[in-house]
Amino acid sequence: MKVAIGCDHGGINLKPALIDYLEKKGIEYIDFGCYGKDSVDYNEYALAVSESVAKKECDLGILICGTGIGMSIVANKVKGIRCGHCHDVFSARMTREHNDANVLAFGERVIGVGLMLDIVEAFLTTPFSNGDRHVNRVNKIQALEDKNFK
Fold first, then answer.
1. 100 with 134: CB under 8 angstroms?
2. pLDDT tens, residue order, the chain (150 aa)
């Protein structure tokens, strides 16, 4: 598995713990930035991570900003991306299992390191259920993208 990660200045303090987790688990990753506490626009980092996942350069993506909201909005503008904005383990598990989400977004100003690691673990280890109703729903999302992103 290869994971694309990115943050803005609002998520910079959680990123080292995320990287440490990925390295300890032996999970390959690409860090798309940012790399400091100076104010930056989250858009470019969300776009870089999402495009990497959409192009299949990475299997999954993880985005961190202050709340996770801006990152998730941008990510979901990229064709082929289903970004779940999650601040609890149950939602992270369900966004993978039921929605086949391929990008996770959360906010550093909302959760701490311990909860973040639990959310990331759930997101990275939960498979898509592939049940007929879930496949049908994801296919409907894809049909909307095909219609609107020509």
1. yes
2. 999 999 999 999 999 999 999 999 999 999 999 999 999 999 999 999 999 999 999 999 999 999 999 999 999 999 999 999 999 999 999 999 999 999 999 999 999 999 999 999 999 999 998 777 888 888 888 888 888 876
Residue reference for tokens 């961190």:
64
Active site residue 98: yes
Strands, sheet with 103-107, edge to edge from the N-terminal-most edge strand = 28-31, 2-7, 60-65, 103-107, 83-85
Q: What is the DSSP string of 68-98?
A: SHHHHHHHTTSTT--EEE-SSHHHHHHHHHT
Catalytic residue among 7, 58, 65, 83: 65
